[in-house]
Amino acid sequence: MSATRTVAGTDLPAAGVWTVDPGHAEVGFVGRHFGLTRVRGRFTGVEGTVVVADDPARSSVDVVIDMATVTSGDRSRDDHLRSADFFDVEHHPTARFRATHVERIGTAATLTGELSIKDITRPVVLAVDYVGHVADPWGNDRAVFSARGTIDRGDWGLTWNVLLEAGGLLVSKEINIEIEVELVRQAT
User: How many CB atoms lie within 10 A of CB 14?
Assistant: First the structure.
C-alpha cells in the first residue's frame, strides 16, 4: 500500500494513522528579550497522533508536550521557565494541542486547534506545510511537516515580566511557534 496519494493533483500522505517520532520532532518557540534579542527554546518531549482522513479536511491531530523538557540553552532560564512564574511544571506537567479544523490548499494547510497550557485552553492557528515523504532504512514510511504560528503568552496566564526603566518589557508577550515533525505511518 502506497504511503502517499494524489488529491486534486497534489501528493499528500496516505489516509491512516501516523504517529510523531519523538526523536525527530521539535516544538520550538521564539520570544524577544529586552524587545530586541531573539531567544529560542524548544520542548524535546513531544508525542502525538495524526489521523489523516480520506478527506484531508477531516484529519485530526492530538499532541502532548512534556513541559519539563523545555530547553533554551541556559540552565537558569530553563529552570525559570519550569517554575510557577511560567509553565509551573510541578502542577501542570503537560500541554496539549488538538486540531479542530483543517483547511488545505495544495501542500499547505491552515490548522486551527486548541492549545491547553496550565489548564487554560485557547484557540491557535498554525500555517502548515507538507514537506514530503521518505521511506526510512528500517522499512517505515515517514511524512514530514513544518508549522508556524504566533501566540500571546498572556492568553495562557504566562504573564511574568519586568517593566524596563526605559519602557517596554523584559520578555515579549508575542511568541512565535516553530514546529518540525516527522510522522511514522502505523500498520493497518
Answer: 17
Separation CA 99–CA 53 (nearest Å): 13
**Higher local confidence (pLDDT), 188 or 119:** 119
pLDDT at 92 (0 to 100): 98
* Nearest-angstrom CA–CA distance, 31 and 36: 9
Phi, psi of 88 (to 5 degrees): 50, 60
- Helix, strand and coil content of the chain, in percent to the nearest 5, comes to 10, 60, 30
Cα separation, 61 vs 99, in Å, equals: 5
Res 33 pLDDT > 90 = no
Q: Give the Cα separation of 173 and 186 in Å (integer).
A: 39
CATH number of 4-185: 2.40.128.110
How much of the chain exceeds pLDDT 70, in percent? 99
CA pair distance 47, 139, nearest whole angstrom: 21
Average pLDDT for 68-86: 96
Q: What residue ranges do the domains of the chain occupy?
A: 4-185
Looking at residue 187, its amino acid is A
